[in-house]
Amino acid sequence: MAMMVKEVAELTGVSVRTLHHYDEIGLLVPDEVTEAGYRLYSDRNLEMLQQILFFRALEFPLKQIKEIVSRPDFDRLEALELHHKLLLEKRSRLDRMIATLEQTKRHMKGEIRMTNEEKFQGFDFSKNPYEKEAREKWGDQAVDGMKAKLVDMGEAGQEKLGAEMNAIYAKLAELRGGAPDSDEAQEAIGEWYSFLNRLGSYTPEAFRGLGQLYVDDTRFTNNIDKFGEGLALFMRDAMAVYADRLAGR
């Protein structure tokens, strides 16, 4: 069933003004316009809008997005699979950068000693395993723009996020000797869930998956366990319980 521009805006969170702009530049043209001039968006239009928003989440400029989706060989499913890989990599990098920031603060306070190598964990953007594939599919300009945005983080914002994250990690570290499904553990892990959802969008399943990543990826495990040995494992279990409860299991 076709939707009017205001309905699309309410559904997606994209402003009416932005939708009008996408139409004007030929990026997202509604399949139908009534005699009265009202834009009507089809399911196909909504699918394309979702695709555009995934590109925007990766900081692709509108001009580049239009060039990509207009290609005769553009494969939406293939693009979604690569979006997934790139967003996971972006999340992993941001988590490593935040962890490095926290360790640096503790180093400056004299609580720990960091090697020079540890001080720059998370800042190496030259080893993205999906970058070559992205460049081949979408071009150098788009990927270079995305990388530039990833490193453009203000110090004030980093410090505030780091302080909040440090407090949550410290609370969880104190609880790690207990049961991950206890009320105290679930309250603390709920704070972690809320914190993450201020940075991005985590479904219960995504939250569970992130917890598993804390154990499966030694980079996460090593950084998290600096706050207390076994913390990564405790967080994984607590996050799984929290995700199940959110999902009503």
From TrEMBL:
InterPro entries: DNA-bd_dom_put_sf, MerR-type_HTH_dom, MerR_fam, TipA-like_antibiotic-bd, TipAS_dom. It comes from Paenibacillus thailandensis. Pfam families: MerR_1, TipAS. Residues 2-71 form the HTH merR-type domain. It comes from the Bacteria. This is MerR family transcriptional regulator. PANTHER family: HTH-TYPE TRANSCRIPTIONAL ACTIVATOR MTA, REDOX-CYCLING DRUG-SENSING TRANSCRIPTIONAL ACTIVATOR SOXR. PROSITE patterns: HTH_MERR_2 (PS50937). SMART domains: HTH_MERR. Keywords: Activator, DNA-binding, Transcription, Transcription regulation.
